[in-house]
């Protein structure tokens, strides 16, 4: 069992995979629900306005959006940048164009890997066995 200090409050806790203690995690989930409800009611609010009104950092809101836990409506001025090209997106890490480009590159790489054949061995490189009598 590993013991760590909570990154939020500094309290020691049994580390299970999250860098914050269970109490801070519960508080963060309450804030998440609060922000989610706020976004539903105030569809045109900016990230800074959402942050101020809900006492949550802009960084945390962007983290929830990148995790696809939050998304902004089409009428919203709020958005985050695509990690690849910088285009404004409503949720996730990448815009639609970058996702499609990465998917195409991945599928073409897989197809190329399948097409690569094993080089044929020369007849002289094969292993030989002698019959013993």
Features:
about 130 residues; mainly alpha; two-stranded antiparallel ribbon; two-stranded antiparallel sheet; 4 strands; about 45% helix; about 10% strand
Overview of the molecule:
A hairpin with a 6-residue loop joins strand 1 and strand 2. With 133 residues, this protein is mainly alpha-helical. It is flat. The chain has 4 helices and 4 strands. The protein has one domain. The strands form 2 sheets. The chain has a two-stranded antiparallel sheet.
Spell out the helices and strands N to C. Answer: EEHHHEEH
Sequence stretches where pLDDT stays below 50 over 5 or more residues: none
β-strand number? 4
**Beta strand %:** 5-15%
Strand-pairing-aware structural class: mainly alpha
Cα-to-Cα separation, first versus last residue? 63 Å
Largest sheet: spatial strand order: 1-2
Summarize the structure.
The chain is mostly helical and about 130 residues long. The chain has helices spanning about 20-40, 45-55, 60-65, 95-115; strands at about 1-5, 10-15, 80, 90. The protein contains four helices and four strands, in the order E-E-H-H-H-E-E-H.
